[in-house]
Amino acid sequence: MSERPNVLVTRPIMDGPLATLRERCDVTIHENEFGIPREELLQVVRGRDAIITMLTEKVDAEFLSAAGPGLKIVANHAVGFDNVDLEACTAAGVMATNTPDVLTETTADTAFALIMAAARRLGEGERLLRARRPWIWGPLMMLGQDLHHKTIGIVGFGRIGQAVARRARGFGMRVLYTDAVTLPPEVEAETGAERRELDALLAEADFVSIHVNLTPETRHLFDAERFRKMKSNAVLVNTSRGPVVDEEALADALSSGEIFAAGLDVFEKEPEVNPRLLELENVVVIPHLGSATVDTRNAMGALAVENVFAALDGKRPPTLLNPDVLGS
Ligand code: DGY
After folding, report:
1. Could you say which of 127, 222, 307, 314 has the lowest number of CB atoms within 10 Å?
2. What is the Cα–Cα distance from 262 to 38, expressed in whole angstroms?
3. Ligand 1 pocket test, candidate residues 13, 103, 298, most atoms within 8 A of CB
4. Secondary structure of 32-52 in the HEC alphabet?
C-alpha cells in the first residue's frame, strides 16, 4: 500500500504545479472539461488526504462527509471562496485555503480591459467587421465614452479594487471607492481614492467596477434601484461574482439607456449567460477570464500546492481561511 498522500485535483491545472504535487503525492485529476457532476464528485472525493477544488465545486457538509475523516485540506484554486462553506470545514476539522495576491494584478488588468472595451464599443465594432457589414468612417460612427479624466467608482476596495484604482490613476481618472471599512490614509493617498457611500458613488461615477466577495449581503447588490441611481453615460464592469448583479435588471437598464454599457466576466447563473444580455450590443461578455494568464495560473497552482503540502506536514498553510480549525 502506498504511503504517499492521496490527492484529488478536480480539474487539470498547470503542468509545473502538478509536477511538484506529483513529487510527493499520488494525484488523481478529473479530466472532464465541464467539471464533475455532483454525484460523481461525492464518489471521487472519498478517502482523499487533500483536494484541490475549483470555484465551480460546492464544498459543503455533504462533500466533507463524503470525503471522510482523512481529509486534511480543501485548497480552492481561486481567490473567491463563496463555493466553500468555511463553518462546515472547521466543524469537520478540515483546513480551507484560497489563492489571493497572485492574481490581483491580472484580474485588475481584465477589469480594465472590460472598462475600455465597453466604453469604446470594441465588441460591437468587432462584430460589425466580422459580419462583413458595409461601413465607412464617419464623424458620428459608433461613439463611445472617454475614460481619461472621468470618475471611476470602485465597489469593494480590497487588493483587486486597489489595483484597478492604480490603473485608473494612470488614465488621469478621479477615483472613488466604497467599502465596509475606511482605508488607512496611506492607502487612500497611494491610490488617490476618496471614500463614498455606495449610492453617492453611483451618482458621481462614470465607470463602476465591482470587486466585492459574494455574500448574502452582496447578492443582487446591483438591482433595478441601483441602476436608477447611476448616470446615463455610466459603464458597469463586473469581474467579481455574477450573482452580485441582478442580470434581468441590468438587461433592462442597458436596453432602456438607463446606463451606457456593461462589461461582464462573471454571470449570475454561470456558465449560463442571460440570453437578453447576449442580444444587446452595449454589453461585452467574456467567459470568466479574470485570472486566465499563463503566469497567473502557474502562480495559483503553485500556491494551492504549497497550501496542500503545509497541511500534509501538519503546518499552517500560507493562505488559511479558517484559522479556528487549528484550535479544534
Ligand atoms: C477567483 O480566483 O476567484 C477568480 O474568479 C478566478 O480566478
Report:
1. 314
2. 32
3. 103
4. CCCCCCHHHHHHHCCCCCEEE
The residues spanned by each domain of the chain are 6-102+294-327, 104-285
Distance CA 51, CA 64 (A): 10
CA of 23 to the centre of ligand 1 (A): 26
Q: Which residues line ligand 1 (CB under 6 A)?
A: 55, 78-80, 103, 290-291
Check: CATH 3.40.50.720 for 6-102+294-327?
yes
Catalytically active residues are 241, 270, 288
Residue 309: φ, ψ to 5°: -60, -40
| Residue 207 Cα to ligand 1 middle (Å) | 22
Cis peptide before 271 (omega within 30 of 0): yes
Atom 2 (ligand 1): residue with closest C-alpha? 78
Cell of 25: 503525492
Pair 218, 190: CB distance under 8 Å: no
Mutate to test the pocket of ligand 1, among 110, 291, 298, 303 (most ligand atoms within 8 A of CB): 291
CATH for 104-285 is: 3.40.50.720
- pLDDT (mean) for 238-251: 98
pLDDT at 244 over 80: yes
Length of the chain: 328
Q: For 152-185, what is each residue's pLDDT tens digit?
A: 999 999 999 999 999 999 999 999 999 998 888 8
Quote the percentage of the chain above a pLDDT of 70. Answer: 99
pLDDT (tens digit per residue) in 185-208: 888 888 899 999 999 999 999 999
H or E element at residue 295: helix 294-312
CA distance 150 to 257: 19
pLDDT value of position 1: 43
* Cα–Cα nearest to 147, from 171, 122, 176: 171
Tell me the pLDDT tens digit for each residue of 264-281.
999 999 999 999 999 999
